[in-house]
Amino acid sequence: MAIFLRNRRPAAAAAAAVLTALTALLGAAAPAAATGPATAAAPPAASASAPAPGDRTPSALALPRPTGPYATGRDTLFLTDHTRPDPWVPSAGARQLLVSLHYPARPGSGGAPAPYMAEEEARLMLAQRGLEDVVPPALVSATRTHARTAARPAPGRFPLVLLSPGFGTPRATLTGLAEDLASRGYVVATADHPYESTGTRLPDGRVLTCAACDRVSAQPDDAGRRKVLAAVSGGRAADFSFLLDRLTGPHASWRYARMIDRHRVGMAGHSIGGNAAASTMAADLRVDAGVNMDGTFFDPVPATGLGGRPFLMLGTHPGHGPGDDTSWDEGWDRLAGWKRWLTVRDAGHFTFTDTPEIGEQLGLEDPEAPLSAARSTTITRSYVAAFFDRTLRGRAAPLLNGPAPADPEVLFQQP
């Protein structure tokens, strides 16, 4: 799967070689696809180059507005787990996490909209996609969000949703989903897992790059790469158990932790983050429900299942229908609780992130994933929210009962 810029020349061949080893693992035509039988969240290499004469770059980018009734706030936590060394760079010391917390807020409170990502994080992300000379990093980093910094929390206690991004992908790329869930009355904690992203900027200004990506690329064969990716998912389960301790335990690290109803916890993730949702549920009974958005189960669903807890598999079509990714067939058979397997026609691996919205505003096209940004956003938000409304709030979710005429792209799989 290639990505093209409208009215721009083809890219240099070097851009397509960024993730050669991962491409072989994913079984895709290019890293952009990441939808084959072994899908990780490898950022796509793009067929793009410098703007052609007369090209117009937009002056500003913006995420779509949240759809719920609440205003939203955002905090950032930097946490250190002194019980574990970093699994990818042990010399770095204890495992650390950067966490964005989106939450329902009082209307009219707070300061400026929260920043999308640091400029250096944007530069590194664009470089891995072969777009560093095409798209200004400052433009991406300045993408307008809707959550306000220092916003006062809304009264009440709210379910908690944990979010985990794809492999090699910054947590910022799930901001649109996090803001929307917060506007619907959820506290949302999105984690950056250091050394598993193109770039994670720490509070002291250091930027950590993807040592785990290097580990995958260094493996001599498919089996070795799969083993490392399974370790990524399992390691994230430990990250989120630690995060739950710090958000819901007796010595909570977040100033608004009282907002969280610790008896209602869900988790969703994109690509390897979706695998991590299952890995976390298998390791931690505090997580009540999970969503895998287009991620292969490198770390398999346990043979004993997930204790009857509900799980949603939401993926591309083709790519994650029955028989496309055998880990989904195996995982489905092992899930004994309430479950749904949905696939989305004309979707791409990054349909479930902010990528379609930002890409469309930049004039980026993916001819193999023609689903529009508006439909990508609506489907992702609607079905993920319906799942958590049903499983964490006990609300009716007719959207999950069967095909909806308003969403002809969404297919209900019945293996």
From TrEMBL:
GO terms for molecular function: hydrolase activity. Residues 1-40 form the signal peptide. It comes from the Bacteria. Keywords: Hydrolase, Lipid degradation, Lipid metabolism, Signal. Residues 37-67 are annotated as: Disordered. InterPro entries: AB_hydrolase_fold (IPR029058). Residues 37-53 have a biased composition (Low complexity). PANTHER family: PLATELET-ACTIVATING FACTOR ACETYLHYDROLASE (PTHR10272). This is Alpha/beta hydrolase. It comes from Streptomyces durocortorensis.
